[in-house]
Amino acid sequence: MTNRILAFTFACTSTFAATPSPTFYKEVLPVLQNNCQGCHRPGEVAPMSFLSYESTRPWAKAIKNAVVTKKMPPWFADPHVGKFTNDRSMTKADIDTIVNWVDAGTPAGNRNDAPAPIAFVEGWQIGKPDQVFQIPTPHEVPASGTVEYTYFVLPTGFKEDTWVYAAEARPGNNAVVHHVIAYLREPGSKWLPNAKPYVAYVPSKSTPASADEFLAQYAPGEPPANLKKGQAVLIKAGSDIVLQIHYTTNGKAQTDQSRVGLIFAKGPVTERIGVLAAINNKFAIPPGDPNYRVAASLTFAKDTKLVDIHPHMHFRGKSFSYRLIYPDGRTEDVLNVPRYDFNWQLLYDLPEGKLIPAGTKMECVAHFDNSPNNKFNPDPTATVHWGDQTWEEMMVGFFRVSFDPKMSKKELLAPPVANPTTTSASNRE
Fold first, then answer.
1. Are 306 and 382 contained in the same domain?
2. Would you say residue 429 has pLDDT above 80?
3. What is the CA angle 319-308-87, rounded to 5?
4. Is residue 118 part of a domain?
5. Phi and psi, residue 317, nearest 5°
6. pLDDT band at residue 393 under the 50/70/90 scheme
């Protein structure tokens, strides 16, 4: 019996020893290429590079902790609700590869086992733009203090309607740029009437009109929208691109020249892309409330397709959900974000688009944590209202739709109704 036990033990030990530990070049680097290097490389938003063994190894334990806790890669959708083509969730096999590599002492392995480097396009994720619009002169950002949202009007000079397949907003200085949103302002618009071309402009709090269309956005961790063949955004002749930029001071006076790049549609456009939003700006989050509920909805007047989803709140944001209520009374949850994180403004792409029949209501529900338990809470003693700054709040359920290119976006929606009452859900949900 003893001999059998020894033989079995030897066989098991031999089998275990025959399974080598993963090495950086052979097993780990492909995982980093597929999951991390989009942000973790020089010039991008992440503060460290994972392109080489030498730059990655000092962060090995932090990487292991981030993937085990699923803090990285950032992805916050409930896996039980909806399917998304850009799901960043790391597979268990990839997580195990990272964990086993770190536990084995981070061996480098043979450099010849490394996969070919990814050929990233320097500075542009959409590829080389056909045209770039940029703030023409450096804009000065102070060393300290609060900088209100700043707008720059960039005339396109387009003499005819132009279809755009891809657009990307890029910060000129990501050390002080929190986000850039590129809007479209059509000829005759009453939005920002006093803003002069190319000159920094800060509007008053009361701006009655709004942008005509959303073109592109830059925010930490958010890639450009991925349109499909035949889809495009319309820029009408004579339109302006308006950059809304949120600058954050960091103790050093700096300058910025943010920009937006466009790739024009090369073939026939079969689907026009537009951005809609369910918004509620009539709320007052009480001091200390850990689960304050705010809802907003809109109803479709025409058949359309849902392309992607983008919830937006600030530091007190806790959760956000989207639900479709069909004309026959059926309901369908399309996105649930149970742990919202303002530091990562993510877009959730739906496969092939979801048909939304006329008469369907899109209902968005957000919860806010204004309690001391929220480590990001700027002030749990404050009553919080709508506002641009991060210590204020927003409740915006953005989503992108596709529709007939001959149709106006205004035709898609039924007349608006009053927003649902905002309530505290502390003891009910």
1. yes
2. no
3. 70
4. no
5. -60, 130
6. very high
Verify that 226 and 282 share a domain, yes or no. Answer: no
Give whole-number Cα distances, 394 to 163, 178, 349, 389, 415, in Å.
Answer: 31, 16, 22, 9, 23
The CATH number of the domain where 277 resides is what? 2.60.120.230
- Annotate 171-228 with DSSP letters as a single string: -S-TTTEEEEEEEEE-TT--SSTTPPBTS-B---S---S--SEEEEEE-TT-PPP-PP
Residues 259, 236 share a domain: yes
Query: With 50 as the cut, is the pLDDT of residue 190 above it?
Result: yes
pLDDT at residue 139 is higher than 90 = yes
Residue 77 near residue 348, CB atoms below 8 Å: yes
CB atoms within 10 A of CB 34: 16
CATH number (domain holding residue 205): 2.60.120.310
Amino acid identity for residue 239 in this structure: S
Tokens of 266: 């090369």
Question: What order of strands is seen across the sheet that includes strand 331-337?
Answer: 331-337, 317-325, 361-368, 292-299, 423-424
Find the domain containing 428 and state its range: 273-429
Q: What is the mean pLDDT of the chain?
A: 88
Say which amino acid occupies 234: L
d(CA 221, CA 209): 30
Q: Per-residue pLDDT for 248 more than 80?
A: yes
Number of structural domains, the chain? Answer: 3
Res 205: pLDDT: 62
User: DSSP label at 421?
Assistant: P
Q: Quick check: is 18 in a domain?
A: yes
**pLDDT, position 179:** 86
Burial of 418 (0-12, 13-18, 19+ CB in 10 A): exposed
> Is 185 a domain residue?
yes
Mean pLDDT, rounded, for 47-73: 92
> How does pLDDT run across 318-342, given as a tens digit for each residue?
999 999 999 999 999 999 999 999 8
In a domain, 198, yes or no: yes
The answer on pLDDT for 4 being more than 60 is: no
Structure tokens at 357: 């029949």
Clarify whether residues 224 and 359 are in a common domain: no
pLDDT of residue 383: 98
